[in-house]
Amino acid sequence: MATQTEFNQAKNEAPEVTASYDASPHPLRVVAGWELWRIASSRSSWIAASVVFIFVLLITWTFKEIAIMGIMAPQEERISVHGSSAWGMAFTIPLVLLVFGLAIPFLSAEGVARDFKQRTHEVLMSTPMPTWAYVWGRYMATLAVCLALAVLMLSVMLLAGVALWAAMGEPFPNVGGTLALWAVAVLPATLLVSGISFALGTLLPRYSNFVKVFIVVAWFLASYQGLPARGGDPTSAYWDPTSRALVSTLDAPYRQALFKGIYVAPTRSSSASGQQVIMVPATQLTPAEQVQKLRERMFSVEQVMPDLWPWVGPHVVLCSIGLVVVGFAAVRFRRFESLL
Amino acid sequence: MELVVEELGKQYGTVWALRDVSLRCGPGMVGLVGPNGAGKTTLMRIIATLLEQTEGHATWNGHDTRKDGEAVRQTLGYLPQDFGLYPELSARQFLRYIAAMKGLPAELAGRRVDELIEVVNLERDANRKLGGYSGGMKQRVGIAQALLNDPELLIVDEPTAGLDPEERVRFRTLLSSLTTDRLVLLSTHIITDVEAAATRLVLLREGHVRSDTTPEALLREATGHVWVVTADQSAAQQLQSAHRVSGLVNSGRGITLRLLSPVRPHEDAMPVEPSLEDAYLLKMGTAAEVLQ
Q: Can you give the pLDDT at residue A339?
């Protein structure tokens, strides 16, 4: 260590040090920016990003064609939706979101709680940084990480679609439909789940692991709750943060448009998830002509943008709930713990 | 530059960790000394705005630590007793991070970090990840972060705990160099930590101030009460049970005891100059109690 003389000399040569946010960037920007930088410095952040990349790539590849029906007669035929189409994305995005929703609590519940665990809390709390800036700044950094992964998911889906188009002659990805579905399904879920996880982790830092488990279980239950919406009351589907109900709600109008004027009868092997049908002769078309018409019609039907407007209002409310609970945490957060 | 503590008390459940503590301190180093559980950390955390008191109040330069904590923290440097660092960052990165949290503009923060890395002698390891640092090196990073904003009030809680003897000496030298133009509150249960630099000693025990004194006054009080005697095993045992012992050395001639007693404890006992540790032990109680 330096001697007293050296230290005093260094001190005299140095300009006066004043700790004040007046001369610095906005405290919120400081906290969020430096926290993001810290997260980016961690190897585990890049591992998480790589896992998301590989997972979404696998999902996109696996669901490049989604079979919606098997025709048994007049010939065996499979009716599939292209994964990169708007209809395909209405299936794929909620599926990816289901898994992403499980990861969000692990990304956000530790935003403030990590400092308690790593015992950096007291050092940070002895700085003049305002409490509200600390909590909101940490949330902004957490949200930025979650959104970055969500954007990565979106990019991988689109890029994989482009690669499939270029290499395998699949239809070009429906960029508009994908973006709209991503905005309606993924953004609100990210804001809601990250907000609740972060707020609970901030208010109960010593129980952040329980918070994660609680949110994961709640997400599973919400997802399970969203499934039976098929053919039921669509109003409840609009409020489903997991967007599992979105799949079944959007599926019906697509099928309706696809099978308009085409007559099929279910076989014994039909199930809710995999319908097996035989074509029934219609007045104007033979079964073989109906199959041909189905194939031709699929290309146009699957690319039709779904009507997502009914989801917008409820999902804006879900986003707001996420932000309100973070605001509540910022107000209730105490800089100190009264522990012996 | 004044710290005023008036009738401060902190209760945890039914236990009073601190009671009726009053102090008034200006620039210089104040040593808060006492055994473990004396209330030192509680007192420091209240002053550092990290804990709310149950009763009384504390002000720094007129700012109440409870009501106006942000103003207090503007000029505060704090090294907690038990603190962590971000293992994924290097010392330089960690200090830049804390400098930003302290509101230092980027350019100034960069210069200040460089200076402090030199001051705490971490130039060679400054770019290494903190996860691989030894306890002593982490402690040096800790003191550097506390000094980033050149604080007028520097609070260091048990800074030498866990350091090896060489690092402890280095640390004391560094702290001594920091006492000009600021108030340094140093808590410790090792009296030698404050011997060199403290101008004032506040002795705490069971949450109460036992003595608010200076090292000189404490030494004066102990003069004539410290004795050295070399005795055989059985005599040494008798002396140990009858008197307070502040030191013991085994040698070929027998056992040399350093005894605390208002009267000559043994006919061969020779009076010696008291050390601050002797004086502290006389004031606070038995060595066993102090060293627990």
A: 54
Q: What is the rounded CA–CA span in Å between residue A177 and residue A181?
A: 6
Contact state of A19 with B86 under an 8 Å Cβ cutoff: no
Q: Which residue has the tokens 């967007």?
A: A243
B170 → closest Cβ in A1, A6, A27: A1
Give, in order, the Cα–Cα distances in Å from B149 to each of A340, B22, B254: 29, 28, 54
- The CA distance from B157 to the nearest CA of chain A, in Å, is 12
Residue A263, phi-psi category: left (phi > 0), alpha (psi -120 to 50), beta (remainder)? beta
Q: Which helix (H) or strand (E) holds A165?
A: helix A131-168
pLDDT at B132 over 60: yes
pLDDT tens digits along A200-216:
999 999 999 999 999 99
- Is the pLDDT at A230 greater than 60, yes or no? no
Q: Does B14 touch chain A (CB under 8 A)?
A: no
Which chain B residues are closer than 8 Å to A19 by Cβ? 74-75, 102-104, 148-149, 151
Edge-to-edge strands, sheet with B226-231: B244-251, B254-260, B226-231, B270-271
Helix (H, G, I), strand (E, B) or coil at A159: helix
In chain B, what residues touch A27 (CB-CB under 8 Å)?
103
Model confidence at A23: pLDDT above 70: no
| Residue corresponding to tokens 């918070």 | A211
